[in-house]
Structure formats: C-alpha cells, structure tokens
Write a structure and sequence with these properties.
It is a single chain. By secondary structure, the protein is an all-alpha fold. It has one domain: Four Helix Bundle (Hemerythrin (Met), subunit A), CATH 1.20.120. The chain contains four helices and no strands. It is elongated, with a radius of gyration of 18 Å. The structure holds protoporphyrin IX containing FE (2 copies).
C-alpha cells in the first residue's frame, strides 16, 4: 500500500500536517508582528524578523503545494470515488487552491491597487485553513471509526 494512499502512513500524515502548520503559523506570526510595528521606524529589528518569516512562509508554501500534489491521485481522488469525507475534503482543497492563487497575485498583482484586496483575501482564507485542517482530520477519523463499527456489527 502507498504511503500517500487513501489513508496516509504516519510519516506522510506528519509531513502534510507539518507543512500546513509551518505555513499557517508563519503567516499568522507575520500578521501579529505587524501590529506592533511603526511603519516609519525602519531601524526596528523586528522588521528583519518579519521579513525572514515571510521567506520561511514562501518556502513552506512551496512544500505544502508539493505534498498536496502527492495527495492528489490516491488520497483526494481515491477518497472522492469511495465517497469518504467528501465535503470537508473539497472545501479544504478549494481553500488550498484559493491560497495558491491569491499567494501568486501577491507576487504578481494584476494591478497595484488590487494588492491590498488580494492580501486580505489571502489572509482570511489562511485563517480559515487553520480551522479546516483539524476539522478534516477529525471528520476523516470519525467516518473511519463509523465504518469499522458498522463492519464489526455486520
Ligand atoms: C477531495 C479531497 C479529499 C478527500 C475526499 C479526503 C478524504 C479523506 C478521508 C476519507 C480521510 C480519512 C482517512 C482514514 O483515516 O480512513 C482523510 C484524512 C486526512 N486527510 Fe484528506 N481528503 C481530501 C483532501 C485532503 C487534502 C487536500 C489534504 C491536505 C491538506 C488532506 C489531508 C488529510 C489528512 C492529514 C488526514 C488525516 C490522515 C490520518 O489521520 O490518517 N486531505 N481525508
Ligand atoms: C497553500 C497555501 C499558501 C500559499 C501557496 C501561500 C503563498 C504566499 C505567497 C506566495 C506570499 C507572498 C510572499 C511575498 O510577498 O514575499 C504569501 C504572503 C502571505 N501569506 Fe501566504 N500562502 C499560503 C497560506 C497562507 C496561510 C495559511 C496564511 C495564514 C494566515 C498566510 C498568510 C500570509 C500573509 C499574512 C502574507 C503576507 C501578505 C502581504 O504581503 O500582504 N498564507 N503567501
């Protein structure tokens, strides 16, 4: 059975969750550090740390897209066909797509005036991801337990 199958191996699961949380936490910390910063104070060392966080965020985001690609064939398509955890899986996949799209517009804004709006969309979807990931895992586990109970009863 593949490590990236309909059910993930412990190592694959750890990679997926680690990539998700590094991306989520680096994004949230970047926002948090911004609250205490004076936009005029360029000497504040927190600025450097904020920049480093964004670099970490960009690298982790690449890794997250890579692991999501690993999940596509067996985990996403396989579970979709088996009708398992469909609703939360589709919403989670949609949120990741929206994050990838809005992240790209931050690098290459179609128009400079739209950058703020895309940044806001990206941040709101980012906060949603922090809720969707644990929800998806919890619902997946619950549905497996239900299937196991039904098999044992039958
Ligand atoms: C159409 C899309 C998707 C469907 C139908 C789906 C379905 C499922 C199902 C059925 C489970 C429970 C597996 C089991 O333990 O038997 C599960 C768990 C999980 N899914 Fe998805 N999923 C989808 C997309 C994703 C995406 C995009 C991610 C990446 C962030 C993801 C990450 C996970 C993780 C980390 C678990 C927990 C694995 C475990 O506890 O063993 N899923 N998913
Ligand atoms: C698939 C997931 C994600 C991808 C591909 C992604 C990608 C990106 C990219 C490419 C940037 C631009 C970096 C730069 O300007 O140097 C960015 C910025 C940012 N991301 Fe993400 N990101 C993802 C998830 C998240 C999450 C979960 C959060 C959590 C809140 C988040 C928060 C932020 C913030 C606050 C910024 C800075 C916004 C700005 O410059 O206006 N991102 N992201």
């Amino acid at each position: 059975m593949s490590a990236w199958g309909v059910r993930l191996s412990p190592l694959a699961r750890m990679r997926v969750l680690a990539a998700c949380w590094v991306v989520i936490l680096s994004g949230m910390l970047w926002i948090g550090l911004g609250w205490g910063l004076d936009p005029e104070d360029f000497a504040n060392p927190l600025r450097v740390w904020r920049h480093r966080l964004l670099v970490l965020h960009g690298i982790a985001a690449y890794m997250l897209l890579w692991v999501t690609g690993c999940l596509f064939t067996l985990h996403q398509q396989g579970n979709w066909r088996a009708r398992r955890n469909r609703a939360s899986g589709v919403v989670l996949s949609g949120a990741l797509l929206l994050l990838a799209f809005s992240g790209l517009t931050l690098y290459y804004p179609p128009h400079e005036d739209w950058r703020r709006a895309f940044s806001l969309l990206h941040q709101v979807t980012g906060f949603t991801l922090a809720m969707l990931v644990p929800l998806h895992v919890w619902l997946g586990r619950r549905s497996r337990q239900k299937r196991q109970t039904a098999t044992q009863a039958g």
